[in-house]
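On clarity, I found the account of how folds are encoded harder to follow than it need be. Since the whole study asks how a given chain folds, the encoding of that fold should be made plain. For the editor and my fellow referees, an illustration may be useful. An entry of this sort, consisting of the sequence and the corresponding backbone structure tokens, reads as follows:

:::
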Amino acid sequence: MSTGPGPESGPQVAPEPGPDPQPRSHADPADTGPAAPGGLFAWLRGRCLGRGAAVDPARDTFGAMTGLYGAIQPADSVSLSTRTHGAVFNLEYSPDGSVLTVACEQTEVLLFDPISSKHIKTLSEAHEDCVNNIRFLDNRLFATCSDDTTIALWDLRKLNTKVCTLHGHTSWVKNIEYDTNTRLLVTSGFDGNVIIWDTNRCTEDGCPHKKFFHTRFLMRMRLTPDCSKMLISTSSGYLLILHDLDLNKSLEVGSYPILRARRTTSSSDITSSGSSGPRAVGSPCHQNNSGPPSEKTLSRPSQREGGSPRNSLEVLTPEVPGERDRGNCITSLQLHPKGWATLLRCSSNTDDQEEGAPVRPVSPRCSLRLTHCIEEANVGRGYIKELCFSPDGRMISSPHGFGIRLLGFDAHCSELVDCLPREASPLREIRSLYSHNDVVLTTKFSPTHCQIASGCLSGRVSLYQPKF
């Protein structure tokens, strides 16, 4: 409701400022209801404003959505039939929630209408090897990456052929991110490289690209929601953060400044972690000066005026309760939709590593503030399990055996900033959903509907929706 002058009635012109007009007749509807100066409109406006500044309508909406997620029952799952495409490695909704894409082990990409649960199309030879990840650039254009070392761009309006194929990695490509500010595509792979692709200058032969960063044992790479930071997890147990990110800046490997001073913790610095050993949430406290050997020799250029230099590197060592004497492979990395937290899945089992990595030296101090964690059995060793946040950041969906678990920061699914504990607390299990006959590898919340999708090792995809 507008907070300005009252609305005009039909074609009438708003009265000039001045004394009140002549009293209305008793039949005037403005005199009905509570007696208040200015009539009915002013009274309604007062009721609206009377909610107070402390009431956040967005939180009311998120609370309602959380209640719907909590009401989901296993019987409400809808099985999307599968045949020859193998395990489901990744699920991704389009930003408007109208399309669900499925990355499959046997070179295929499946597309479904998540509302009607109808199959739309199968890209039977999307790649020449396993399809690992899918990322939408907008509601029509999306990218896929594969163990065949390539990235492919697709347009929903013309799925019979790729927009283009991108060549640049020398090993399996595992992760795709997109900077909405610069329209640059960012990919990472097991060759240890993070590569930037200029999608503004795409042709049928590909896009201009450059190597942006390199580190040993790279597992996953993510951009924060505002694209101001890049986070990288490694199979040797390190979490790397590039602060004040500038993807347009041409930097060579080894030229990144290292942040050694303790950073000031703010709401944008909170990170969280989770695992198939433990799952956790924490905030950076200080940098581990005994970083990985490949980072020790990095130079430190002078800081720009007023703050740290662009693309400055911070090396963190998240510690897992009960595992301080063992290296932890960070197999999954997700970010809170508001940038408040980082969700990690850590495992001390080398079977979870898709390529070998040495056990890292024990850090003399913990570099992350652990806020929440949970432990679970490592069912389906050898496969990466991808977990995710809900669109409002109040809940976590995690593969758990032959199903998924919905987890909250407390029993009421409060926002993280409203229930941040002084010491590490367990994540609370809200509900467990089981509808698969094999190990679940990935799960995803719809960005627009009260719906969760999950995919398993035998290729089955299930949708979960509340029953009304």
Summary: The CA atoms of residues 398 and 404 lie 5 Å apart. The chain has three helices and 30 strands. The chain has a mean pLDDT of 75.
